[in-house]
Amino acid sequence: MHEDGGPAGRRRSGAPARLADVALAAGVSTATVSNVLNWPGKVGPATTERVRQAMAALDYVPHEGAVRLRRGSSRSIGLVLPDVANAFYARMARGAADAAFDHHYTLILCDSADDAEREEGYLAMLAEQRAAGAVVAPLGAGTARLLRLRRRGVRLAVVDRAEPTTQSCSVSVDDVRGGRLAVEHLLALGHRNIALVNGALSIRQCADRYEGALQAVACRPDARLRQVNVATMDAESGRSAASGLTGADAPTAVFGTNDQLAIGVTQALLGAGLRVPDDVAVVGYGDLEIAPYGPVPLTTVAQPVYELGRTAVELMLDEIDQGDRHEHRSRVFAPELVVRQSAPRVS
Amino acid sequence: MHEDGGPAGRRRSGAPARLADVALAAGVSTATVSNVLNWPGKVGPATTERVRQAMAALDYVPHEGAVRLRRGSSRSIGLVLPDVANAFYARMARGAADAAFDHHYTLILCDSADDAEREEGYLAMLAEQRAAGAVVAPLGAGTARLLRLRRRGVRLAVVDRAEPTTQSCSVSVDDVRGGRLAVEHLLALGHRNIALVNGALSIRQCADRYEGALQAVACRPDARLRQVNVATMDAESGRSAASGLTGADAPTAVFGTNDQLAIGVTQALLGAGLRVPDDVAVVGYGDLEIAPYGPVPLTTVAQPVYELGRTAVELMLDEIDQGDRHEHRSRVFAPELVVRQSAPRVS
DNA sequence: CTGTTAGCGCTTTCAT
DNA sequence: ATGAAAGCGCTAACAG
């Protein structure tokens, strides 16, 4: 049955050393070696020393898998997101990775590539891994899949969607506040004729930012907010949206609900001979990578994305540690306005 | 010793179902359940059906850890890199994640945060996990740490450093060629007075891109290449470097060895009242996120970063599969010039 | 075709 | 202070 000497036999050739090999080399039992590792106090100094020597000599590395099988606990968590190549999720991943590292957890990266089926596959995989938990930035609105994962013993934290706190912890950014911040800034600068270049309102973020923008203008009866909606939130859409904004009764300020859009608008405006911010001020949303590099360094709403990832992991670990004493929380982060030149401080 | 009924006892309350639970429910032995899972042919259709029903009823999910402990194989690989939040590594991570998914491997994300000690810790962790392999984008030049990981049975592939093929597989981009590409383009546009804004030559990439630039001008005796080196390769450095480039005998073209630098240069040039590309052409390097969003959409050298990550994983998996039949390879990818407006096709 | 059984590498009583 | 032995959940001989 054994390929070779078996557990008490002599050291296998290529394979890494096992705890039993160390025990044999040190002339002690496996229990003692294990105790050296896990209950240092229980072993005499001389024995401890001999064991340590043997471990070093054999380059012994404990087999995590075996340890966890025996202990019945897992120390890995999953990070499920739509696309790490996207700056938003990349930064989130960084936060999650740092938190996992700090707590000695292993982070399994699950990139669903914007594909629901793939996301599903990853969730199943995490169950098979007996992952202690998962941080999920879900693709769709479906909650059933997530609940199933829960039922399988994987603790959850959801990112970027304000979840009813009864289900699981969640972290998100207050997009209403962000939208308000952007437009309030433009109002404070004296603008009264403002255009909102936004994505589809069916996207929660877009709807929220719109809502915030409305709240801001509502306080200023003399202000006007006109809305332009685009299908895809990229620079190209921003450029074409801007073309409708240069005629008579042109707005003096534009709020683009993401940075790509805002930069596209800026490019088109400049191309049309207008000056930014002198003729038209522009505010974006996101503050990822590109904002400072645009044609005019972009004033934009920054989100604490790194914190989002870090906090999600920490909430989840709290649930793991506290067990049933744990109470689900929804942490909502406040975005902040980063003022650059496309809409500077003074009017 | 047992907390409860033990392996043959009745189903534990909260814990996930085990294979033994399924066997009990289906009225068969554990071996049969295992066979249904792994050797479908060996089990009769009626029995198979009963077992499947039981699995569904109990929501049985195999315990990956136990499977692997028994089989002696691991199906997870590590991805060790300096910073996922960095667009370059983020894109690489995406390639690696996709490849891992395709081959049913689990990807452990190890973000060393540019910290050698942390990288070291991750390498040790991967050994404890008995990871089948690791893709490493190493921080420093040290090779010893990597060799140690090898010795511990973890297969390796190194990214972004042309490794002698005797040690392990590696993938990288031909930076000499990239530098040549950039400058050849400028020469073809008719430029003869070119400035190279570069980082420290102690950085391999910078030295290589410089080398390539030199090769290009060497073919044109009438061309001149002047060099400006900066300490940090960001937009700020680009801006200050550009200020030395506007006086008499100013270059008609600038090659910035990364996109941030090139955009900084462009910003400063425009600020000084020059037109890009009409007065000065600019070429960057990298083609990450920001290139198309700059003040002038940037002509730049693109690297197949996604492929880098994907290929690294695949080379490593080949080593895992082939064992000693495997031969280490160094795959060097060719960068490509992406022509945008800062140095358009026609002069 | 199905069941019995011996471990994978480790931790942990319980006895010495 | 140390050791013997029983499994964690699963697979793979081997026997029936």
What report would you give on this structure?
The structure is a homodimer of 347-residue chains. Chain A has 347 residues and is of the alpha/beta class. Chain A has three domains: 56 residues, lambda repressor-like DNA-binding domains (434 Repressor (Amino-terminal Domain)); 128 residues, Response regulator (Rossmann fold, 3-Layer(aba) Sandwich); 129 residues, Rossmann fold (3-Layer(aba) Sandwich), CATH 3.40.50.2300. Helix content of chain A is 42%, strand content 17%. The first copy, chain A, has twelve helices and twelve strands. In chain A, strands 2-1-3-4-5-11 form a six-stranded parallel beta sheet, sandwiched between helices. A six-stranded mixed beta sheet of chain A has the order 7-6-8-9-10-12, with helices on both faces. In chain A, helix 1 packs across helix 2 and helix 8 packs parallel to helix 9. Chain A is elongated and about 90 Å long. The N terminus of chain A is likely disordered. The interface between A and B is large, with 57 and 57 residues. The structure holds a DNA duplex (16 and 16 nucleotides).
